[in-house]
Amino acid sequence: MKKRLVVLAAMTAALCMSALSVQAEGDLITVGFAQVGHESDWRTASTKSAEDVFSEENGYDLQFVDCDNDPATQLEAVRGFIEQDVDYIIIDPIVSTGWDTVLTECEDAGIPVIVIDRTIDDSDKYVSWVGSNFLTEGIACGQWLKAYAEAKGIEEINALVIEGTKGSSAQIGRTDGFNQVAEENGWTILDSQDGDFTQAGGQEVMESYCKSYEGQFNVVIAQNDNEAFGAMDAMKAAGVSYGPNGDVVLVSFDGNKPIMESLLAGDLTAVFECNPLAAPDVEKVIQQLEAGEEPEKEIYMTESWFANEDVVTSIEIDGEEQPVTQMTEDVLANRAY
Ligand code: AHR
Fold this sequence. Notes:
The N terminus is likely disordered. α5 packs parallel to α6 and α7 packs parallel to α8. The chain has two domains: 133 residues, Response regulator (Rossmann fold, 3-Layer(aba) Sandwich), CATH 3.40.50; 171 residues, Rossmann fold (3-Layer(aba) Sandwich). A hairpin with a 2-residue loop joins β13 and β14. With 337 residues, it is of the alpha/beta class. The structure holds alpha-L-arabinofuranose. Alpha-L-arabinofuranose binds next to α2 and β9.
């Protein structure tokens, strides 16, 4: 008899516990995140930021899809979130066009969409976008190069560009921004090819550049850190020296810790930051929506520019003087990612 009572009590407790956990799960806000992929250090930091913010402890059920840099997979992921009837959808668009139909489907399903990092340029059927100004990053790179060349007495710029994934707003903005300054200053861009934001892509493009433009280039613009690492491997193999003490000025965009270590070591000459920690701002948007408030349509991340030397300490962008920070052990130690 006693034993049966104990069993009954245990069963009742178990039932209560499971009811409680169902209730707790029911309280979670379900967020579907269609992430670009896992192509770069930047992407790893962006994913981690989202996982940290949209955790169960913080009241979220994060449904994460790594779209492996495939736009078709990304559309499928968004449609999957609609079927699941998630509360919110976050999209980091691999490419900037081709979005209106699926965003209309989200709208019809009553699911708010928040765009993170890259932009969607052919539809405005989303609540907010949180990300970087890629055009400004490209202009910053150009303005820094102009000031650096003047300070160092470099008379001619013959640049090779390793672009990011074609059709992504990061590639479009950085390319347009840099080209704008290049045109104003009569620089020669010998070539500009797609390295897909990967180390392997950067290496492959740079290997072919080293063969085709042997002895002709003095600047390499890698549109992200990983491409820069690939470019270093290719230049090393081809016997081309780079960095502040080498023959080639090498710069990159992003600024994750591994490239900042290389910047400090003198492998690169400058790095233009792209901040991957946008998830906290996306969460603010969700909390505003939960509270019935209207979030801002565009939210820009704060970004800085870094160099190995203190030759150029500031650059002018859109009439505003912006600092260029010299990379030091202290600056490196304080980097958040
Ligand atoms: O969209 C941001 C870009 O995508 C980062 O520069 C790059 O590293 C990433 O893959």
